[in-house]
Design goal:
339 residues, alpha/beta, Quinone Oxidoreductase, Chain A, domain 1, Rossmann fold, seven-stranded mixed β-sheet, 10 helices, globular, metal-binding, zinc, oxidoreductase
Length: 339
């Protein structure tokens, strides 16, 4: 079958950065679904893994962590799906990616594709939806099942216009949470307001200064989706005592964790690949989560966050999508494939 992989780490503008390759057709076993991929999305994790030096000695690296498609075959332990089912999912970081004609994925992290979305639009939703949902309702102290518990609670989302931010704003508002989002360009400010943000501040300025224009000076929780290290002091400045911070962005060295001690702040990570990577006992929660998101999408409670579509799925369009994501100017999601 045809797939699209990286043979050597190079700039995305180099045609060799992502190339078509031929690999054997995979065979599903146990809980695996064999999916004929109709569309994929490109996320920041795709570019990070593509640029990693390790692992290339074993052949081509095939990335891709969002997909929609049709189930072609199933493993012997599969109970949730059958051939012919239309599905969407985000895959597992330790397995070959979705940038291929056929892809293996564990059924426990897959859900039926939203009925009212085409394959292209559906492919842009899984990874960001899982990340946002887990961050809000499993890492941060908000409830999806009991929104009355969220009444009066305030959340700050750093980088509201990105892929995760675009769905996090909507999920938070659905759950009755007051949302302040950050954005710095006229088009991103307009986008986060369209998604439902109650206020918008500029993340290029000191947060405590931006909050002077707001009717409150602190928030109960922060979801950091960009530059954790760079916003460390900003977050401490506006988080309430005994508040919660969750980030999806690596810190690196040089962070003073003691800064959070006087306020007894809880800090946590969200990494949506944790469940499939370690095959946790609650791995099937991602299946259930994506089912809930599909209902919200089909009922119009939340809207798709796809802003750009490229067709067909080929190396050239994948390189274009990676370049756009690496630019840091992406609004919402970009998808590649067919309807």
């Amino acid at each position: 079958m045809k797939a699209y992989g990286t043979l050597d780490v190079t700039k995305i503008t180099d045609p060799k950065s992502i190339v078509p390759i031929e690999i054997p057709n995979p065979t599903p076993t146990e809980h695996d679904l064999l999916v004929r991929v109709k569309a994929v999305s490109v996320n920041p994790v795709d570019t990070k893994v593509r640029n990693a030096r390790d692992g290339l000695t074993n052949g081509a690296r095939i990335v891709g962590y969002d997909a929609s498609g049709i189930v072609e075959a199933v493993g012997e332990k599969v109970t949730l799906f059958k051939p012919g089912d239309a599905v969407y999912y985000a895959g597992a970081i330790q397995r070959k990616g979705t940038n291929a004609e056929l892809h293996l994925v564990d059924e426990r992290i897959v859900a039926a594709k939203p009925k009212h979305l085409d394959f292209l639009t559906a492919a842009g939703m899984p990874l960001t939806s899982i990340t946002a949902y887990e961050a809000l309702f499993e890492r941060l102290p908000f409830s999806a099942e009991h929104p009355e518990q969220n009444k009066g609670k305030r959340l700050l989302i750093i980088n509201g216009a990105g892929g995760v931010g675009s769905i996090a704003i909507q999920l938070a508002k659905w759950a009755g949470i007051h949302v302040t989002a950050t954005a710095s360009r006229p088009e991103t400010v307009a986008w986060v307001k369209e998604l439902g943000a109650d206020e918008v501040i500029n993340h290029r300025h000191a947060f405590k200064d931006e909050f002077e224009a707001l009717p409150f000076d602190s928030v109960d929780a922060i979801l950091c989706l960009n530059n954790t290290k760079g916003h460390w002091q900003n977050m401490e400045d506006v988080i309430k005592p005994q508040g919660h911070i969750c980030s999806i962005v690596e810190i690196g060295a040089g962070i003073n964790l003691d800064l959070l001690k006087p306020k007894s702040i809880t800090f946590s990570w969200e990494f949506m690949f944790t469940r499939p990577k370690f095959e946790t006992d609650d791995m099937i929660e991602q299946h259930k989560l994506l089912e809930k998101v599909a209902v919200l999408l089909d009922n119009g409670v939340i809207k798709p966050t796809v802003k750009k579509k490229l067709t067909p799925l080929n190396a050239e369009n994948l390189r274009q999508a990676h370049e756009l994501v690496e630019s840091g100017k992406m609004i919402g999601k970009i998808v590649i494939g067919e309807n």
